[in-house]
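Field log, afternoon session.

UNIT: design team B
ACTIVITY: writing a sequence onto a fixed backbone
BACKBONE:
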């Protein structure tokens, strides 16, 4: 106790307590750190023994809890003190202690047997104690009987006799005034006693009648009562133990109901509440009695209660509580209704009850009424159990009532929440017993295709304002402004209890059939996820750039942050979406995760699809994180053979492994690889969401890519310094991965990861500074009501306060290091340039910063140079905010001092005035601080950076060292690989650099030699042509910021624009293999688009020659004009790099009309053809951007005699370039197909058709191994890795799609005669087989069916192509198409859907069916049907249709049979389960296919009228 009080205070306090129990209590009070005035008050109270109740009050006000060691104090006070008031004060703490849950060791310490002996002996001397003391003893012994019956067993009969004799003498004796405290104590004790020592009528207890009689007398006293403890005690006994006296209650049902109902209308709230509970219990017992004792004598009792209930409902003066009693009474008497009433009477009563409930809750609803809606639903659940069938009207009304409950659930008082859970789940269970009623109730849709009521309940859950996590002050302020603030959090307990219903109190009394409970839970869970997916698809989460002129001017600068300037199109939808994400995060990972198992693939697939469409919405990454965490908790990929997955393609999936699991692995694997690239340009919440997703991955996904994960871990730990949840996530991931991954996989990366912990372990928080800090939110209230501020350390004793979040993170780091082993500890210390070596090297060889300290008596000179490295280190990396801010302020002052000294000595010697070496070290740190998350550093250094730019751009010499130091620092920072905020700020700073360079340069000098602009642009060219993607991204980012300044200067545009264009086109070509998610191609495309706009605006100048214009590399002319640039761009249209090629097409199409004498692009094309012929375009389109391309290498073999994967990929790039070019000029009507196909000379010179024929004949239907064997007979045996096979298939499938698109454009833009003139070798069986395989089974060609672009775009494209060919191709080609389909279906049964039907999902051999491929096949058949290709007129085609079982009637029958089988419940290992979401989707697609056929309606109705039961049982 020395930490709280000094010795003097200790002695003063303990001297007040002379006996041992008091000294023990004093020690505990001191350990609890009570203030000295409280200790003195307790001592005064106990010393005089007059007001021990104040001790109890002080215990309560200070949260002091009685412990077993304090029982002796209470017993001592009860024994020694003669005052009744003191004795009575000992009972409440004892009752509190004994009534709580105690560990067995604590029970032994209490010595309850001695306690029982003590108070039983006292009860045998009743005259010795006052009435209140005897009441306390009876209650205490009753509590012991309830909680510790084993100790009361020897005295059970004796204690019962004491209770009954006391009640007899008090309640039936003559001329004796009732001793109310004694009677109440006996009744309370007897209520607790009967829990374990029952005295029911059924057991034949001889005391049952007496106990019931005394309870009956208590609730119907014949005397006027000043207090209501007596009837309350009697009502409590009946409410708790009515089942033990059911016979007596039923005999006096009418009178007993009237008595208790009178108490239900009493003005006292406590007794009114107790009476309602008692009334419910007697109604339950009477209803059960009426069912078991089914005779005519009981009909009168039944009618009595129905009349009472009816009168309450019809009465206009009945309050909501009375209405609830009547409605619940109907529920309790539902079972007797079935036996005592006719079916029509029951149905009439039910509908009348529904009508009354609708009047209550659909019209003028308020918070008072809504409190009793759960009772109504519970009653309807009971009524449902007795109905033989449920009509649609009844179900619709229940749906509406359920929606009302969801909408008003936050306004229902907390005490009724359990009743809400119970009533709703009872309702669902009752509906489940009625066959398909539960399914219809949960998933029925209205005219707007919105399911009721789960969907509506979920909508109401997520339609409230967003809850701001962790900002309780803001939430409270909003509460004060607008009343109680409702959020999704209020609904979490409701959904959680409904899904894991086993935790609902009292539910075990409803049913013992766990299978039914599990089925209802699973059905509700599935419908909840269905609703979640529907909401995600319905929400408009799109965003757009700011539209006003002012906002556009503010956001015109380029930025690597993709969300900059975006605003949601529908803000309300984003509010709902945020709530949906937070709700899912709070519910799904902790609630029946095993139900999520069938949803892992479809749910994850939809999330990946949505995230691909809307990559800037962080919520999708959070939902994906939830999905992956559940995967980890279920060990979803635990039994997956990773070696098989990594070494085989999707076609090699084994039967023993689930296809969904295999596809899920591939989907998640590719998605997280994309996210790793995306997060490099994200920041804020989007950045953190992506990092959290990466950190949640299971080890199976990352085991082969640990090198890619390490940078994400390092960034997470860096951000975690200011956002600790991310640091915790990183620690969790490392602990999980280090346990699951072999040491040889993760061990080599510890040297990169563990130094990130150094910043956490170096940080310190001095707890001693908090000792005397006052916290006004923690107070003690004295009895007088005064509030006193107390020191935090006094309120929170040592060891009782919680550690800070940072301290907990540090502790977890230490635990992780211990888990990894001592050999890794040395890796935590940072090494190399980050620490010792960088501090050990001087920044300059001269001390250049002398500073005279202005003391009064002297001015000593110190040099600031040695301090600079440490100051910079503290400013940039200190985890202590105060230190960081102080270092920032000092660094800011030193920089100003350096600039000032340089300005004062413009003509001094270089050794004194040259600060370039210092600037090279200071400027990078200054830029980092200017973009830091710390607001103080931003406010200090952002203005400083701009001021330094203004100062140093005033240089007169070309590339002065200080200006170059600043420029290089800016350019080095703009290519930072991970810090997007730094990149954005430096890009803006470079715009300021160019703007002030122009501003401080004369117009004449600007035209002659713009020094700073030239320095900047030549460095941008170097970055743009660099092999590193991040450097090219930086070059694009800078130009997208400076173009607004550049375009305003005519001289700069005239001099540099064409050179910029050429360099950036080449840079875009270099970005061909960059990850799209990195944003390199996007930013370069934006830059070229800006250049296009500038050229259009300055076309009059750029069409003329200029002596100042720089000639780009590669141009051999003496002067360059727009005409030369467009001709160069035409050649680039044939480049094999896709993004570059497409943008060059855009530039040619946009710039050609701005040439002198040209108004449209067609005019320019005609002029070119007139001067150079069509060969001008053919040679450039087929030239591959230079002298190479399919013009020289028409086939793969022409490119190389020996096989290499690189050469075949290069040929594919050239082939794709030619296809794109011809599709472009034909589709834009720049050149007509007739100009090439109609001219034999040109057709012969055009190599594209020969390449197409080679591709169709030799490549498109063959695998990579088959191509090597057939085309390269001289090549040695080749063994390809899965990655090589995947890359080749991607190239081949891209070529297939572009080829089909080319043929579609060719057919669409050609006349019938020209279509006939197309080389016939193109229209081969191979071509049409490829088309039909794209429709029916694209994976057979190598398409990745897990690729979202394939899933979304390929079906629609093939549908359009098939319809176009059916409409435009000649009849012989159509006949060839049908023949190809016939051969395909007859040759391969896996494409013949009719032969695969019916499919039974309730059979074990069908469980592992590939549902994804089957779904694609069904959709393919639907496409073929919708194109009209199979609506034949010829005999040959009709025979074909019969041959392949495509007779519509037969196929429809098989489909309907499959759908019916799908509706049947599957039984696997004796466990009945519902269809998985994927199986339901297949059944729905089969039904859609059936409805495309002519005879589907009659067959459908015949299946509906089939009497075979779909659900066995009820």
């Amino acid at each position: 106790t020395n930490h709280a009080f000094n010795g003097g205070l200790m002695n003063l306090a303990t001297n007040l307590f002379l006996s041992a129990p008091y000294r023990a209590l004093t020690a505990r009070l001191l350990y609890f750190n009570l203030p000295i005035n409280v200790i003195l008050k307790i001592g005064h109270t106990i010393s005089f023994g007059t007001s021990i109740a104040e001790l109890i009050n002080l215990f309560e006000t200070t949260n002091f809890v009685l412990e077993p060691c304090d029982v002796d104090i209470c017993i001592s006070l009860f024994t020694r003190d003669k005052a009744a008031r003191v004795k009575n004060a000992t009972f409440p703490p004892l009752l509190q202690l004994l009534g709580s849950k105690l560990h067995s060791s604590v029970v032994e310490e209490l010595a309850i047997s001695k306690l029982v002996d003590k108070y039983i002996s006292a009860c045998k001397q009743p005259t010795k104690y006052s009435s209140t003391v005897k009441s306390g003893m009876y209650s205490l012994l009753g509590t012991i009987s309830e909680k510790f019956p084993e100790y009361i067993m020897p005295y059970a009969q004796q204690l019962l006799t004491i209770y009954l004799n006391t009640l007899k003498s008090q309640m039936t004796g003559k001329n004796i005034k009732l001793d109310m405290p004694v009677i109440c104590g006996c009744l309370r004790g007897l209520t607790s006693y009967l829990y374990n020592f029952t005295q029911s009528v059924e057991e034949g207890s001889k005391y049952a009648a007496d106990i019931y009689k005394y309870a009956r007398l208590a609730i119907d006293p014949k005397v006027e009562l000043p207090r209501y403890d007596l009837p309350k005690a009697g009502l409590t006994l009946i409410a708790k133990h009515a089942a033990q006296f059911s016979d007596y209650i039923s005999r006096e049902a009418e009178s007993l109901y009237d008595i208790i109902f009178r108490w239900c209308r009493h003005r006292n709230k406590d007794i009114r509440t107790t009476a309602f509970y008692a009334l419910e219990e007697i109604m339950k017992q009477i209803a059960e009695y009426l069912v078991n004792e089914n005779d005519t004598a009981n009909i009168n009792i039944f009618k009595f209660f129905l009349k009472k209930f009816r009168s309450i409902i019809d009465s206009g003066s009945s309050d909501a509580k009375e209405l609830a009693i009547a409605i619940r009474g109907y529920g309790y008497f539902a079972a007797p209704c079935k036996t005592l009433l006719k079916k029509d009477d029951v149905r009439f009563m039910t509908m009348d009850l529904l009508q009354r409930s609708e009047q209550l809750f659909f019209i003028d609803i308020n918070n008072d009424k809504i409190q009793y809606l759960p009772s109504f639903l519970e009653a309807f659940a009971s009524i449902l159990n007795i109905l033989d069938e449920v009509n649609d009207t009844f179900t619709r009304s229940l749906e509406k009532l359920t929606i009302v409950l969801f909408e008003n659930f936050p306004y229902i008082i907390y005490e009724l929440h359990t009743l809400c859970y119970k009533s709703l789940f009872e309702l669902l269970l009752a509906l489940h017993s009625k066959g398909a009623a539960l399914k219809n109730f949960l998933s029925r849709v209205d005219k707007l295709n919105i399911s009721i009521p789960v969907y509506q309940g979920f909508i109401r859950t997520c339609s409230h304002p967003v809850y701001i996590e962790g900002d309780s002050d803001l939430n409270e302020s909003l509460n004060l402004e607008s009343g109680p603030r409702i959020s999704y959090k209020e609904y979490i307990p409701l959904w959680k209890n409904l899904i894991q219903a086993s935790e609902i109190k009292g539910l075990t009394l409803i049913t013992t059939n766990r299978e039914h409970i599990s089925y209802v839970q699973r059905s509700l869970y599935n419908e909840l996820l269905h609703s979640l997916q529907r909401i995600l698809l319905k929400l408009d989460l799109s965003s757009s750039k700011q539209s006003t002129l002012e906002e556009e001017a503010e956001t015109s600068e380029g930025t690597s942050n993709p969300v900059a300037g975006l605003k949601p199109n529908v803000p309300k939808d984003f509010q709902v979406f945020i709530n949906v994400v937070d709700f899912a995060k709070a519910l799904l990972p902790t609630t029946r995760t095993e139900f999520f198992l069938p949803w892992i693939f479809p749910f994850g697939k939809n999330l990946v699809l949505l995230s691909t469409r809307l990559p800037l919405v962080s919520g999708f990454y959070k939902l994906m994180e939830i999905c992956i965490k559940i995967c980890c908790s279920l060990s979803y990929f635990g039994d997956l053979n990773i070696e098989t997955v990594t070494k085989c393609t999707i076609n090699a999936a084994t039967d023993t492994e689930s296809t969904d699991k295999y596809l899920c692995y591939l989907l998640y694997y590719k998605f997280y690889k994309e996210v790793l690239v995306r997060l490099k340009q994200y920041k804020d919440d989007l950045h953190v969401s992506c990092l959290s997703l990466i950190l949640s991955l299971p080890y199976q996904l990352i085991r082969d890519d640990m090198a890619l994960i390490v940078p994400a871990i390092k960034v997470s730990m860096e951000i975690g310094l200011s956002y600790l949840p991310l640091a915790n996530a990183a620690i969790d991931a490392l602990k999980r991965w280090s346990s699951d991954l072999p040491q040889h996989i993760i061990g080599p990366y510890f040297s990169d990861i563990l130094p990130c912990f150094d910043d956490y372990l170096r940080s310190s928080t001095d707890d001693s500074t908090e000792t005397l800090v006052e916290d006004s939110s923690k107070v003690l209230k004295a009895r007088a009501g005064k509030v006193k501020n107390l020191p935090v350390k006094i309120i929170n004793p040592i060891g009782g306060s919680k550690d800070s979040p940072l301290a907990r993170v540090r502790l977890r780091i230490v635990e992780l290091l211990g888990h990894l082993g001592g050999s890794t500890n040395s890796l935590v210390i940072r090494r190399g340039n980050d620490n010792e070596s960088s501090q050990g090297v001087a920044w300059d060889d001269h001390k250049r910063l002398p500073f005279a300290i202005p003391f009064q008596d002297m001015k000593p000179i110190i040099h600031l140079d040695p301090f600079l490295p440490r100051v910079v280190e503290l400013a940039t990396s200190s985890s202590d905010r105060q230190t960081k801010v102080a270092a920032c302020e000092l660094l800011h002052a030193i920089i100003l001092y350096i600039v000032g000294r340089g300005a004062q000595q413009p003509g001094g010697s270089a050794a004194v005035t040259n600060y370039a070496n210092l600037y090279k070290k200071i400027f990078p740190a200054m830029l980092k601080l200017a973009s830091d998350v710390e607001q103080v550093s931003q406010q200090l250094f952002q203005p400083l950076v701009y001021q330094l730019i203004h100062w140093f751009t005033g240089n007169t010499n070309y590339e002065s060292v200080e200006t170059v130091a600043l420029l290089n620092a800016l350019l080095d920072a703009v290519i930072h690989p991970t810090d997007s905020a730094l990149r954005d700020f430096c890009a803006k700073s470079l715009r300021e650099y160019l703007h002030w360079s122009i501003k401080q340069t004369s117009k004449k000098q600007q035209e002659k030699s713009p020094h700073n602009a030239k320095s900047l642009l030549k460095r941008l060219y170097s970055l743009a042509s660099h092999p590193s993607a991040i450097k090219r991204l930086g070059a694009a980012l800078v130009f997208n910021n400076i173009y607004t300044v550049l375009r305003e200067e005519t001289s700069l545009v005239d001099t540099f624009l064409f050179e910029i264009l050429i360099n950036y086109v080449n840079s875009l070509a270099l970005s061909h293999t960059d990850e799209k998610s990195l944003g390199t191609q996007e930013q370069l495309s934006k830059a070229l688009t800006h250049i296009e706009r500038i050229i259009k605006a300055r076309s009059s100048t750029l069409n003329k020659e200029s002596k100042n214009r720089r000639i780009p590399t590669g141009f051999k002319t003496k002067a360059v004009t727009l005409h030369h640039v467009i001709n160069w761009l035409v050649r680039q249209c044939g480049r094999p790099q896709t993004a570059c090629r497409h943008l060059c097409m855009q530039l040619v199409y946009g710039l050609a009309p701005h040439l002198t004498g040209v108004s449209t692009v067609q005019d320019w094309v005609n002029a070119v053809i007139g001067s150079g012929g069509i060969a001008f375009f053919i040679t450039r389109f087929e030239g591959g951007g230079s002298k190479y391309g399919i013009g020289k290498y028409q086939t793969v073999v022409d490119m190389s005699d020996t096989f290499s994967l690189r050469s075949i990929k290069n040929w594919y790039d050239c082939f794709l370039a030619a296809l794109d070019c011809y599709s472009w000029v034909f589709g834009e009507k720049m050149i007509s197909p007739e100009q090439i196909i109609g001219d034999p000379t040109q057709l012969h010179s055009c190599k594209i058709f020969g390449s197409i024929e080679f591709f169709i004949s030799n490549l498109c239907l063959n695998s990579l191994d088959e191509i090597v064997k057939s085309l390269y007979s001289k090549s040695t045996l080749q063994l390809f890795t899965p990655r090589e096979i995947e890359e080749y298939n991607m190239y081949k499938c891209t070529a297939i799609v572009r080829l089909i698109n080319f043929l579609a454009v060719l057919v669409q833009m050609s006349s019938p005669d020209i279509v006939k003139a197309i080389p016939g070798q193109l229209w081969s069986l191979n071509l049409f087989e490829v088309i039909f395989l794209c429709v029916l089974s694209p994976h057979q060609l190598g398409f990745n069916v897990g690729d979202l672009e394939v899933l979304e775009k390929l079906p629609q494209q093939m549908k359009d192509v098939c319809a176009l060919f059916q409409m435009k191709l000649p009849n012989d080609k159509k006949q060839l198409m049908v023949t190809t389909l016939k051969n395909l279906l007859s040759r391969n049964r896996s494409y013949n859907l009719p032969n695969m039907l019916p499919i039974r999902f309730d059979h074990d051999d069908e469980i592992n069916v590939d549902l994804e491929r089957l779904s694609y096949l069904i959709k393919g058949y639907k496409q073929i049907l919708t194109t009209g290709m199979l609506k034949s007129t010829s005999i040959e085609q009709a025979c074909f249709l019969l041959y392949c079982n495509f007779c519509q009637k037969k196929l429809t029958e098989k489909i309907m049979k499959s759908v019916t089988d799908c509706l049947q419940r599957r039984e696997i290992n004796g466990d009945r389960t519902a269809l998985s979401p994927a199986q339901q989707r297949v059944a729905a697609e089969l039904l859609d296919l059936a409805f495309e056929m002519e005879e589907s309606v009659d067959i459908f109705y015949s299946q509906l009228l089939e009497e075979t039961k779909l659900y066995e049982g009820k």
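LOG NOTE: DSSP finds 81 helices and ten strands in the chain.
NEXT ACTIVITY: expression trials, pending approval
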